[in-house]
Specification:
Layout: E1 2-4, E2 10-13, E3 17-29, E4 32-48, E5 51-64, E6 71-85, E7 97-105, E8 111-120, E9 126-134, E10 139-146, E11 164-172, E12 175-181, E13 191-197
Antiparallel strand pairs: 1-2, 3-4, 4-5, 5-6, 6-7, 7-8, 8-9, 9-10, 10-11, 11-12, 12-13
Organism: candidate division TA06 bacterium DG_26
Protein name: Bacterial surface antigen (D15) domain-containing protein
């Protein structure tokens, strides 16, 4: 990204960096196998030019399987925490998020459909639709839409891409690699990459 002075004069470039590391745990609630609850403790880091900040936060959630095979509904509360190191002189609050959603997995397990409603503290209601197709045992393909993309529209021909996303996943033994491309219209086309490792099969 281009770095400018307060008067708009270009003085170089910089690349922002954001990262979050989460330690999570979930378990069956009491003796009911249809209800599970869990939480995640996360460390959040952000870097903008020479300014950096980090915070800790807690996510809590629960899942419920109401009966029809493959159907799951859930809710979550996100970002119960605080900023530890400020970017500059002002301490910022972590935006609290609330979400409800559901998913349906086809009988053969090859197609997953999802729906989410979210209410962040700093935004109106957001809805998202997603799908995942298991092509083989090791490969999955994904397609989704997020209404947040309407915020990125600028009147250009690429506005139609705002909110869309496409991705793929690769699994080898207990290692998983996921990638997704999420066009942000005039802000560019960021590529998101994540890895995870399961400690048990």
């Amino acid at each position: 990204m281009t770095k400018t002075t307060a008067d708009g004069d270009e003085i170089g470039t910089f690349a922002p960096l954001y990262m979050a590391t989460t330690l999570a745990y979930s378990t069956q609630v009491l003796t009911d196998p249809s209800v599970r609850a869990g939480g995640g403790l996360k460390w959040i880091y952000g870097l903008i030019d020479e300014y950096s900040s980090h915070a800790v936060a807690l996510d809590l959630g629960a899942l419920y399987e109401p009966g029809p095979r493959g159907l799951v509904v859930g809710f979550s509360v996100q970002n119960l925490g605080t900023q530890i190191k400020k970017y500059d002189e002002t301490k910022e609050s972590i935006p609290l998020g609330l979400a409800v959603g559901g998913s349906y997995l086809s009988g053969g397990g090859g197609l997953l459909l999802t729906f989410d409603l979210k209410r962040p503290a700093d935004h109106g209601l957001i809805f998202a639709l997603g799908s995942e197709w298991v092509a083989t045992k090791n490969f999955t393909f994904r397609l989704g839409y997020n209404s947040l993309g309407s915020d990125w529209k600028s009147g250009s021909e690429s506005d139609i891409l705002g909110g869309l996303s496409v991705g793929a996943g690769f699994t080898w033994r207990q290692l998983r690699l996921d990638m997704s491309l999420r066009p942000m219209v005039d802000l560019g086309n960021p590529l998101w990459i994540s890895t995870s490792y399961r400690l048990s099969r």
